[in-house]
Amino acid sequence: MIGDAVPAVGGPNDLDALAYPPEALPYQPGRVREYSVTALDRELEIAPGVFFPAWTYNGTVPGPVIRATEGDILRVRFVNGGVHPHTIHFHGIHPSNMDGVFEIVGTGDALTYEFEAKPAGFHVYHCHAAPLKKHIHKGLYGAFIVDPEEPRPAAREIVMVMNGFDTDGDGSNNFYTVNGRSFYYARYPIRVRRGELVRIYLANLTEFDLVNSFHLHAEFFRYQPTGTGDVWEYTDTIMQCQGQRGVLEITFSNPGRFMFHAHQTEFAELGWMGFFEVEG
Length: 280
Ligand SMILES: [Cu+2]
What we know:
The protein has helices spanning about 15-20, 130-135, 185, 265-270, and strands at about 30-45, 50-55, 65-70, 75-80, 90, 110-115, 120-125, 140-145, 155-165, 175-180, 190-195, 195-205, 210-215, 220-225, 235, 235-240, 245-250, 255-260, 275-280. By secondary structure, it is mainly beta. It has two domains: about 5-10 and about 155-280, Cupredoxins -  blue copper proteins (Immunoglobulin-like, Sandwich); about 25-145, Immunoglobulin-like (Sandwich). It has a six-stranded mixed β-sheet, with no helix packed on it. The chain has a five-stranded mixed β-sheet with strand order 11-19-18-13-16. The structure holds copper (II) ion. Copper (II) ion (CU) binds near residues 129, 135 and 140.
């Protein structure tokens, strides 16, 4: 498992827009944060020569990172450019008619979701049209960061959405990834510096398997479930059920190459494995 020798699709910057979130903005209640999200059916190459007929938000699986600060008004214009009915269901607190469950958006239709972004934390969004298992597994999900009024300390920030792909339609996953491509971060290790604060927004949107996990080699991290509250766990392994998420903070003690992967070894060997390259 030497990074450059591990097969992965694409170039070293292909996933930057998914992995490196837009910057946090300072607290300013009432500010409007606008996003455009379009459901698109796309054939995505998730491993060399392996194509998955995905249903996407904005053409990628996971969809775009949506970020707001607590107290912002989040306005998301959703257009359904796919051939099936879809919605966007955000986790968090909002009115029932903004919940993306009852107002199904048909092909060619549009709906604008608008609500105050709260509570602060790390959330997810996903389609909530039936059958739910299929709409999520096909790829309609993404990361939703709500920054706290009191900003988090400056850090190198990375979003990781754990998922799986059932490429033969038998109801179980054949490939596992973070941010949509198997072994991507093994081929293109994530470069960080020794001593800098690294913050990972980690979410689990894997269908079929109830639990996914994150294990870091040779280092420990702090873990804040859901990115809320004052309770932090100090560990090198955490697990998340479907829809769970949290914030990890790592300060690497040593330079070098460090592996991270699902501690379900099957997931790791089917693509959910990568490296941090720690410089300095
Ligand atoms: Cu859907």
